[in-house]
Automatic annotation (TrEMBL):
Alphabetized PANTHER family for the sequence: IDURONATE 2-SULFATASE (PTHR45953)
Organism domain of life: Bacteria
Residues in Sulfatase N-terminal domain copies: 17-390
Family annotation (InterPro entries): Alkaline_phosphatase_core_sf, Sulfatase_N
One Pfam family it belongs to: Sulfatase
Keywords: Hydrolase, Metal-binding
Organism this protein belongs to: Alsobacter ponti
Region annotation Disordered: where it falls in the sequence: 518-542
CDD domains: PMH
Keyword Metal-binding attached: yes
Protein name: Alkaline phosphatase family protein
Length: 542
């Protein structure tokens, strides 16, 4: 790995501020599914001033594991918070804890879905009854997700809204008597000016009003476009359903299930209205309902873009724009019916390919508007932010700073693949785990995704191999084709090398010597693209 570059030069008195935005369930390219005029002009403008990373991938799903990797810079096989509600080991450092060492006070607007290490709290601590805790290091300024609706709903009540007795019922359409009716083309119960996205944006603006002359670090987590697929007017009908591209999927649900035992079991789990908590079973829905659900999802994206524009306009008006690093990404994607799947998880692109745009002050002209098609990952974001703040990323982090790309450089060495992991254990014998007859520790898949080849390795199930040049939709498994056996072996070896290279190294590079403790904290290096060529030469003939 190339020697990390210094962050952009600036005047000594220039402040450093961070706006780190992490959406929930925004898949890369979703905003283009309807064609026509852009749904995200403000995000487009941000990308024109910064760098868009076109091959950016999450390292895990769903939300808890994804954010654990995003905020610790660690792969799931290191931090092991692999499911929602799986505790995150308190021994690991993270982005906000490291930022605090440099004097910043990272504040959170939204949520991180962090599950507390039960060894650090009393047995009856309420934190042990939820997976929607706050990552250590963040100071919670304004909470919002489905477990923390009270602040937003209190504001709605003050404005005269009738707040439902069951708080989650705010996410349903007017006239519905059931909580399980969380998709509608009709408008939400609240106006757009009073939506959850608008409310949280206003809290950030309130926080900034008296801090113009300060350094600050804001982590903003908008809940949308996460389901329920209900949007306030005009966003509920902003995107015509007939303009939305249809899902990319096999001709029948049965033929899709035949691809692999995991997919068969995962689709069986989704084959119920309860999966999305709607009266529509998305797997059995008609084409019109599917198009409408996708259209509302896109409307929620358009709403987010409007509020992104509000934040940018404030920073430009106050003069803070040239002091602020802006990072815009998502925890994971949304399948939206591709391969008949909804939600997040598994190995397909829709769930794991996510947006990333970074804009830093004082970027050279050659960096602005740049589109980087090298593979980047969620674990890279924490080291990037820390380096921009002038801090050394923790040597245990698996990610690599993206700062060279922001300076208009192209690193001499960079990964030519993306890696992610999906853990589908339930710890109760139900779900996919029970359907497949697996133990919890057998319920893991790993993916190594190159430009052409995509290899999926399961702990206790057959692998998958896709040729993305010939089969971009990922419909044909080549893993059992004898002609592709060398490719399977190469990628399996590459996956093993990747995991070995990124093993935890807290003390591995430390040595107790005669004159005291010695440690090496340099870069890990890269897994060679061709393992055969990487072998050392044999004995030299004299």
């Amino acid at each position: 790995m190339a020697t990390p570059l210094k962050s952009p030069t600036r005047e000594p008195e220039r402040r450093r501020k961070v706006l780190f935005i992490a959406l929930d369930q925004w898949r890369a390219g979703a905003e283009r599914l309807a064609g026509g005029p852009s749904l995200t002009p403000n995000l487009d403008a941000l990308a024109a001033e910064g760098v868009r990373f076109s091959r950016h991938y999450t390292n895990a799903a769903p939300c808890g594991p994804a954010r654990a990797s995003l905020l610790t810079g660690l792969y799931p096989h290191i931090h092991r918070s692999v499911r929602n509600a799986t505790p995150l080991d308190a021994r690991f450092t993270n982005l906000p804890l490291e930022a605090r060492k440099g004097g910043w006070d990272p504040v959170l607007f939204g949520y991180t879905d962090s599950s507390v290490d039960p060894r650090t709290v009393a047995p009856r601590d309420p934190a042990l009854r939820t997976f929607e805790g706050v990552l250590p290091g963040f100071r919670l300024e304004a909470a919002h997700n489905e477990a923390s609706l009270e602040p937003w709903l209190t504001d709605l009540a003050k404005k005269g809204y009738e707040v439902p007795g069951r708080l989650r019922d705010i996410y349903r359409h007017p006239g519905s008597p059931k909580e399980m009716d969380r998709f509608s083309r009709g408008a939400a119960l609240y106006r757009a000016a009073d939506s959850d996205t608008a409310w949280l944006t206003e809290r950030v603006l309130d926080y900034w009003r008296l801090r113009r002359a300060e350094d600050w670090f804001v982590h903003l987590v908008w809940y949308r476009p996460h389901p329920p697929f209900i949007a306030p007017s005009p966003y509920n009908t902003l995107v015509p359903a007939e303009r939305v591209a249809a899902p990319v999927r096999a001709a029948t649900l049965e033929s899709e299930r035949a691809l692999h035992p995991f997919l068969d079991a995962w689709l069986s789990e989704q084959d119920t209205a309860d999966y999305l908590k709607t009266q529509v079973n998305a797997l059995r829905a008609c084409d019109e309902d599917i198009a409408a659900m996708r259209a509302v999802y896109l409307g929620l994206i358009a709403e987010i873009d409007v509020h992104l524009g509000r934040l940018v306009a404030h920073l430009q008006q106050t003069g803070e724009w040239d002091e602020t690093l802006v990072v815009f990404t998502s925890d994971h994607g949304e399948m939206l019916g591709d391969h008949w799947c909804w939600g997040k998880g598994g190995f397909f692109e829709g769930s794991n390919h996510v947006p990333l745009v970074i804009r830093a002050p004082n970027m050279p002209p050659e960096a602005r508007g740049r589109v980087v098609d090298a593979f980047t990952e969620a674990v890279d974001i924490a080291p990037t932010i820390l380096e921009w703040l002038g801090l050394e990323p923790d040597p245990g982090m698996n990610g690599v700073s993206l700062m060279p790309w922001l300076l208009g450089e192209t690193p001499d060495e960079w990964r030519d693949y993306a890696f992610w992991e999906f853990d589908f254990r339930t710890l109760g014998g139900g779900g996919v785990e029970g359907d497949l007859g697996l133990t919890p520790d057998q319920c893991t898949l790993n993916v190594i995704r190159e430009a052409r080849w995509k290899y999926v390795h399961f702990t206790a199930l057959p692998p998958l191999l896709f040729d993305l040049e010939a089969d971009p939709g990922e419909f044909v498994d080549l893993s059992r084709d004898p002609a592709r056996a060398p490719e399977v072996a190469r990628l399996a070896g590459r996956l093993a090398s990747h995991r070995m290279l990124h093993a935890e190294r807290t003390l591995a590079n430390t040595k107790l010597a005669r004159h005291g403790v010695r440690a090496w904290t340099g870069p890990r290096g890269q897994v060679p693209s061709d393992l055969a060529e990487a072998r050392p030469p044999g004995p030299r003939a004299d």
